[in-house]
Amino acid sequence: MTTTRQTRGVKPEERELARKRRAQERFEAELAECELRLASLRGELGALEQRYLKLVGLPYAELDELRAQVAEHLAAENPENERLQRAAQEARRRANESRAAASVKESETTKQFSPTPALKRAYREVAKRIHPDLTTNPTDRARRQELMAEANEAYQQGDESRLAKILDAYESCPEAVEGEGAGAELVRVIRKLSLMKNRLVEIETEFQTLVNSDLHLLKIQVEDAQEQGRDLLAEMAEKVRKRIADLRERLETTAPGRVH
């Protein structure tokens, strides 16, 4: 009887608020997991790109430079041949582009991305608490966006302590204080659910874009090779080095002193 009276005493908006809060908890957990999944894929692809550029990209830049020198040597020997002149110009353009791209990454340190379970847990907690789509307040949302950007960077750098500091910083800020009243809170929760659903769609779209990228295809090929005990990037780099050696020999034979 007491339970019945207590149930009858609960306002409709309070019952709906309780139901929406349960849904919010589920969506928060799902959103944090999806954000982690996306951040992990970004980190894995970023690490693979750095390793590719170091092992294969830099040698390719050298290869393009030698190709340009060969093309320029042929053009110099045949100044009336317009096709060779155009080929030399195009080869030089590609070599310059390759060198510029390689120089940007040359000083970067290649680091394997291997997040620990503790790091993943820390990221989930941050995403659950401060994700921008968990608020409808513009000021609070802007603050959360900044902190989530920092959290993504900390996660990809493997900095668990920084993730904890980011969460502590938000928990102590005035924007974290919520208002009172079941009706107002119900509206806020409903809007939070809508924002989280939209974000889940955005995450899935970006995730599929990454999955369909050439870099992800390379990731799959690298992993398949690893299962066979092979290092695909090292094999690719070796092939480039052989082509470099062949071109150097060709240049030494046809144009001594032109190899830089």
In short:
The chain is mainly alpha-helical and about 260 residues long. About 80% of the residues lie in helices and about 0% in strands. The chain folds into 2 domains: about 15-115 and about 200-260, no CATH class; about 115-175, no CATH class.
Structural description of this entry:
The protein is an all-alpha fold and 260 residues long. The chain folds into 2 domains: 16-113 and 198-260, no CATH class; 115-177, no CATH class. The protein contains 9 helices and no strands. The protein has helices at residues 2-8, 12-77, 82-106, 117-130, 138-156, 160-171, 182-211, 214-227, 232-254.
How many E-type strands? 0
Shape: elongated
How many individual domains? 2
Helix/strand structural class: mainly alpha
Number of helices: 9
Show the helix and strand layout.
Layout: H1 2-8, H2 12-77, H3 82-106, H4 117-130, H5 138-156, H6 160-171, H7 182-211, H8 214-227, H9 232-254
Characteristic key phrases:
260 residues, mainly alpha, 2 domains, disordered N terminus
